[in-house]
Amino acid sequence: MLITTTPTIEGHRIIEYKGIVTGETIIGANFWKDIKASIRDIVGGRSGSYERVLVEARETSLNEMAQRAQAMGANAVVAVDIDYETVGQNGSMLMVSTSGTAVVIG
């Protein structure tokens, strides 16, 4: 499954548009990650634990979107948009949503 943020795929022709597909993931960060991140805020540096959560959420959302596209008979998704939001009490959860257009390319 080819997934791209561009509206076309170089070297391929879009034969059929199947429709909009989405993927959503909401994932929480635990108490220890919050403490570690707070310390990082004070002393500086990157928060590896939060970065891993972010990567996991993004990959899960993209995989969900790809599965939905495949179920529609598509072999690619174009014009993909990835959005990040915090949700829940005090922004304790991360939501990653992806959307794009499922297509058949030749």
**Beta-strand percent range:** 35-45%
**Uncertain regions spanning at least 5 consecutive residues:** none
Briefly note the structural class of the backbone.
alpha+beta
Rounded to the nearest angstrom, the radius of gyration is 17 Å
Order of helices and strands: EEHHEE
Q: Percent of residues in helical segments?
A: 25-40%
Name the strands of the widest sheet in spatial order: 1-3-4-2
Number of helices: 2
Query: What characteristic shape results from the CA principal axes?
Result: elongated
Biggest sheet features: 4 strands, mixed
Mean pLDDT: 86
How would you summarize this macromolecular structure in one to three sentences?
With 106 residues, the chain is of the alpha+beta class. Helices cover 35% and strands 40% of the residues.
From the structure above, extract its key features:
4-stranded mixed β-sheet; alpha+beta; 106 residues; 2 helices; 4 strands; 40% strand
Q: How would you portray this structure in words?
A:
The protein has helices at residues 31-43, 48-71; strands at residues 2-3, 14-28, 76-87, 93-105. It has a 4-stranded mixed beta sheet. It is built from 2 helices and 4 strands. The protein is of the alpha+beta class and 106 residues long. The mean pLDDT is 86. The longest helix has 24 residues, at 48-71. The protein is elongated.
Topology of this protein?
Elements: E1 2-3, E2 14-28, H1 31-43, H2 48-71, E3 76-87, E4 93-105
Parallel strand pairs: 1-3
Antiparallel strand pairs: 2-4, 3-4
